[in-house]
Amino acid sequence: MDKIYKNIVILTGAGISAESGLSTFRSADGLWNNHRVEDVATIEAFERNPDYVHDFYNQMRPELFAAKPNAAHLAISELQQKYPAEVNIITQNVDTLHEKAGNKNVWHIHGQINQIVCLNCGNVFETWGDICSEDECPQCKIRGMLKPNIVFFGENLLYMNKVDVLLEKCDLFISVGTSGVVYPAAGFVQIAKYAGADTIELNMEETSNNYFFDRHIFGPAGTTLPQLINELLLASKNKV
Ligand code: BJW
Questions:
Q1: Which residue lies with its CA nearest to atom 1 of ligand 1?
Q2: pTM score, two decimals?
Q3: N or C end of the chain, less CB within 10 A?
Q4: In sequence order, what are the residues at sequence separation of 6 or more whose Cβ sits closer than 8 angstroms to the Cβ of residue 36?
């Protein structure tokens, strides 16, 4: 890899956090194990039974609070510090492992487990504690309108204006640990490819939309991403 890139976008999914001990969504023992996705991850479910949904995310919060970043997250920090490009991370993950690893320019398009949004006034605030349907918004003081700031099926994604700009200008698009089945994120590679970017996929296995990737690297992200980043850093040193 000889090219020097100027705008790198890294799209991450649950697979990048697997080696930190967090379950992915669609594996056999996935995150929704024992729960129907329709009951915990749709806006209709939340409207129907908010406390059931709050309980699900209340139980998830301590595990994500305790989780530690792995070699893949840490390698991204190295890339951001040492490579002469703007590096943005578009993450579908609601964990905060990118931030814990010191990664910058992180865009949580599916929200964050440690944020709550008030559906009345739009206030977003942080907590690692439990929330229930009777809780009051600290800003507008209305009760019963708090929702985990997590994007459920049927809701619009966050930061999409920023994401559109990043995808249009990126010259290298790297996808790490996502099955590529959830839209619109699954379509980002196509946008980046049509905008002229080189595209690389890192995953344990073949994914459904691999048609738009120039290169596939199979294996655990904690090994493959540091290797790829070393390749990029070496190429940039050789050009200096
Ligand atoms: C490793 C590894 C290791 C393991 N190393 N790899 C266009 C076409 C069809 C449908 C739609 C469409 N546009 C919109 C839709 C509807 C819907 C959708 O996509 N449905 C599909 C399922 C068919 N999308 C939406 O509703 C989105 N909103 C939207 O589009 O708004 C506009 C709109 C509104 C209304 C109507 C129409 C349009 C919102 C999507 C929100 C997704 N939210 C969730 C979280 C739910 C809450 C929660 O419980 O946390 O986000 S769903 C879930 O999936 C979560 C994830 O971020 C997301 C993606 O999963 P991810 O990260 O890819 O995980 P996995 O488990 O699937 O894959 C892990 C991968 O890692 C695997 O490939 C492993 O091999 C790999 N791996 N270990 C490297 N060590």
A1: 15
A2: 0.96
A3: C
A4: none
